[in-house]
Amino acid sequence: MRGGRHILWLKVLWVGTVVTALYLPIVSVVLASLANTRYMRFPHKVWTLDAYRAAAADYTTVTLHVISLQIAVCVVLLSVTLGTIGAMAYARHDWRGRGLFQKILVLPIFFPQPVLGLALLLSMSALGIAPSWKTAVVAHAVWIVPIVTLVISIRLFGYDVAQEEAAFDLGASRWQVAREVTLPALWPGIFSGALFAFLLSWSNLPLSVYTSGADTPLPLWLFSRTATNYSPLVPAIAVIGTCVSGLIVVMLLLMRRLLAGKNQPV
Amino acid sequence: MTHLPPALSLTGLTRRFGTKTAVDAVSIDIAEGEFFTIVGPSGSGKSTLVRLLAGLDVPTAGSLHLRGRDITDMPANRRPTAMVFQSLALFDHRTVGQNIEFAMKMKGVPPEARRARALELLRLVRLPEDYYPRPVTQCSGGERQRVALARALGSDPEILFFDEPLSAIDYRLRKTLEVELKELHQRTGKTFIYITHSLEEAMVMSDRIAIMRAGRFEQIGTPDEIYRRPHSRFVAGFMGEVNILPVSQAGGGAVFTDLGLAAPGAAGAFAVLRPEAVRPGGDAGVGFDAEVTQRLMLGSRTQFHLRAGAAALIAEVAAGPQADLQIGQVARFSFDMADIAWVDA
Questions:
Q1: Which of chain A's ends, N or C, has fewer CB atoms near its CB within 10 Å?
Q2: What rounded mean pLDDT belongs to chain B?
């Protein structure tokens, strides 16, 4: 029994260490945002919300979020569409070059992102395309579509394609088959894929550095201001940005719960 | 004499995949209300054939008529037929009720009517009504079979197809479901077209059986005809354990090559002889001495593996004093020429 208690204490200690290691940096950012000096020193002489007032008053705050959000939304739509189609082709049909397709598909994930970003910037300038938030969407998609495709195709592996034939045999049109059988089966995969796509795009720095041009997404602004012109405004906006993305994820989860509730058998 | 057109009429139905011919010019009429079973080994083209019949695949050549109407180019969703799939292909994210009602929902039948019919079908396939709201994922193997059957019946099909639905079921449950399926066929009066690799399963249920080999029907007949008068060694081989004795011409007439006995009146190159036709004692037409090499108790019968000259034979004897032979014993056995089915190949 004494041994059991020992193990329990070790478990508590271990979990506590892990949680602290995960959350201490975030807590530090929140603490840094409550200071009024350009130099990070702790404890603060003055505790203040000035940085948040400044952030709320500054038009940049809104612009940064809008740019990041529009990139993320476009990436989600693009990667979910392409990912679903790709996953279906991959998991449902056995075609020549299927194995090769899988390898080529996951290759961009193994590329160091700064290299990928530079490569994309070079090819875009070669094509005469000026970088903007739209080119950042393309850059993010290059990296995120493979991930989303993998996430959705995992869902398709336990899936009996004969279900679609059965629905067709029972009088469903092609469109009804997709709506009644394929999409409901894929929906959890599509949802997880969308969540991944959003979060990976929202927090991406190395690809945006090269490809977003004059439009500055949130992580890029945070990076450059930390490097060159630091003030408590930086951690304050970081905290706001984290809250915004957290809120969006919570909203998506609620939406999913609601939709699932509607489809529940009575 | 009725003049109903056949429920399904196949004319030269062919399906090729590249250079391989899976279904080779199959022609047959299947009567209204018939239980027709196609038996074949894997790769014989039986699954391809049933997919052509259901409209899930398009024939390379030939035509298909349902009650006289040409349905060759009609896709599966417009054909008044339904299939029970090998994997069952139940809609996993739905309830038993939603599965059964699927075809009716596609037709736009109102919910109350759908529900009433679904409950009726649950009774028909012997599932309790309280299964209606259950997710199909919570059903056992046998229950899933019944749900799949009820779902197919839910489209009120004129013909039901079965693509080896019982192949993954254990022996005892399969026997039960075979009988239930036969009873269901009798109650509904619908045309059933059933695919299986087991002649035993086909025998129990069918009005007529077609033995399929390399894309063609090798023999079509009632279970009794197939059992008693197989047309070839291939068909005979499907019946499980059976004696096939080669016959050759020597001197004056035909002889059983391996037994070294005369075969008066031989009408083919091989004699197909059922194990129960080989009897202990010498009272039948052809008698020979044989050594018992194996003795297997089968319940109501005992099976003996025999060696006589160069021939190895199987005999099955009903329980009784005659079945007392032991391994290593030499005894007299005989069979009647009239019990032989003659085949040439």
A1: N
A2: 91
Q: Could you tell me if residue A201 is inside a domain?
A: yes
What is the total count of domains within chain A?
1
Say yes or no to pLDDT of A160 above 90: no
Residues 178-217 (A) with a CB less than 8 A from some CB of B: 180-181, 184-185
**Percentage of chain A exceeding pLDDT 90:** 55
Domain contains A98? yes
In residues, how long is chain A?
266
Average pLDDT over residues A218-237: 91
Instruction: Tell me, yes or no, whether A196 lies in a domain.
Output: yes
Residues of B with CB under 8 A from a CB of A: 54-56, 75-78, 81-83, 85-87, 89-95, 97-98, 102-103, 106-107, 133, 135, 151-152, 154-155
Read off the pLDDT of each residue in A6-35 and give the average, rounded to a whole number. 91
The answer to whether residue A264 scores a pLDDT higher than 70 is: no
ipTM of this complex: 0.85
pLDDT at B2: 57
Burial classification of residue A128, based on how many CB atoms lie within 10 Å of its CB (0-12 exposed, 13-18 middle, 19 or more buried): exposed
Measured CA to CA in angstroms, residue B172 lies from B7, B39, B176, B298 at distances of 32, 21, 6, 16
Residue B54 with chain A: CB contacts under 8 Å: 169
CA B297 to chain centre: 26
Contact A180 B87 (CB under 8 A): no
How many interface pairs between A and B have CB atoms less than 8 angstroms apart?
68
Q: Average pLDDT of B268-294?
A: 88
Shortest CA gap A145–chain B (Å): 27
> In this predicted model, what pLDDT tens digit does every residue of A90-126 receive, in sequence order?
777 777 887 887 788 788 788 899 999 999 999 999 9
Give the CATH number of the domain where residue A118 resides.
1.10.3720.10
Kindly list the structural domains of chain B, giving each domain's residue range(s) and its CATH number in brackets, ordered by start: 8-231 (3.40.50.300), 243-343 (2.40.50.100)
| SS3 category, B84 | strand
Q: What is the pLDDT of residue A12?
A: 93
Residue-range definition of the domain harbouring residue A188: 50-263
Nearest to A167 among B97, B102, B107 (CB): B102
Closest residue by Cα to residue B5 from B81, B64, B80: B64
